[in-house]
Amino acid sequence: MTEELTFEDLDLSPEVLDSLKKMGVKRPTTVQQKAIPLMMDNMSVIAKAPTGTGKTFAFGIPILEYLNLDAKFVQALILCPTRELALQITTELKSLGKYIQGFRIASLIGGQSMNVQKEKLAKKPQVIVATPGRLLDMVTRKMVDISQIYTLVLDEADEMLKMGFINDIRRVMALTPKDKQIALFSATMPREIQDITWQFMGDAAEIDVMPKAQDHPDIDQYIVSCPEKDKLESIMKILSKEELRKVIVFCNTKMEASKVCAKLASKGLKAEVLHGDIGQGTRNRTMDAYRKDKFDILVATDVVARGIDVDDIEAVFNYDIPKENELYLHRIGRTARAGRSGRAFSLVAYLDKPRMEEIMRYTKVDPKPYEL
Ligand code: ADP
Ligand code: MG
Question: Is 57 in the pocket of ligand 1 (CB under 6 A)?
Fold first, then answer.
C-alpha cells in the first residue's frame, strides 16, 4: 500500500547518496521513506516506530542536507537518553557526512571531562548530539549556545522520559527558537510525550510505522458474522458473555461513532466518543477519564486511534470494518499492551465480507469465527 521510494527519489545530494552506497544501505526503511520528505520540507514530525527501523538516518539525512556549512553556530541538536546512544548516533552521522566538506559534529555526554568537551566545541560543530543533563549543564555555563538551532531531535523520547529527563526537555524547548523544526521519535507514546507534542508541536506531521501482524501474537481475533442492524446487540452480548469491561469500539465515520455511542449509553452502558471534530481539550479530558476508569467503552474513529495509549484495554471491536488494511492492525494493537493479552472482534455483515477477506489476505491475520 505504501509506495516504495528509493533514496534517489528523495532528492539527496551526491555526497549523501555516495556515503549511503559505501555503507551498503540500499533502500530507505519505512520510517525513512516517511520522515525524510517531510523533514526536507521543514516540517516537524512525530514518529512512532519500533527500534531497529533506521530512525538515525531518518532524521540524520535531512539535517545533513540542510546544514549551512559556512556558518559556525550550532544548527541541529539531537537529544537522546544515554551516552552510548549519543556516541552511536555521532558515529553513524559522521559516516553519513564523510563526503560533506566542512561538516562537523560533536557529542556532549556525561562522564567526559569538560576539557575534552571544550576542545570539541572549539571546532565549531554545526551538529551536537547530547544527553539532556550534560547539554543543559554546558548551556548554563555558557559553553555552548543552542539559541539559534534550526532543528531539534528528540530521539527515543519515551526512554528519556523514563530516565527523568522530561523537565530538561521542557527547558531545552524554552532555550531554543520558537519556530524550530522538531523531530520526535519514540517507540511508544505515553501520556507525558503526548503532552509535549500537544504543547510544542501543534503543526507536526504524524508518522506511524505500522505494527506487523506477527507483532501481535497475544491478541485473539474473532469474526462475528451478523446483519448490519444487529451489530450493536452483538457487541452487548459479547461484552456480557466474555465479561469484558474496558473496551474500544471503532467506527469508520464520526457520525456512526456518535450514533453507536449514544445507543450504548441509552442501554445503560458507560460510553464516551472520540473523533476528529472533537476539540483537543475535550479529547484530553476524555482520554484522561478513560485511563482513570471513569467510563468503560470508548467509541472512536481512526483519526484519534494513534493517541489511544492505554495499557488495560481488554478488547477492541470493529463495529465497521476499516477501509484500509493497515488500519486493522493499528486498531487491534490498542489492546494487549504492556505484556497483557487482548481480544479483537470484527463485526462482519454480509456486505463487509469482501473487505474483511482482503484485510486477512493483506495482513496475514487469521481471525476465528465467533459463535454468538
Ligand atoms: P533505530 O534508531 O530505529 O533503532 P538505527 O537508526 O539505529 O535504528 O538503525 C539500525 C541499523 O540499521 C543500523 O545499523 C543502521 O546502520 C541500519 N540501517 C539504517 N537504515 C538502513 C537502511 N535503509 N537499509 C539498511 N540498513 C539500515
Ligand atoms: Mg535509534
Answer: yes
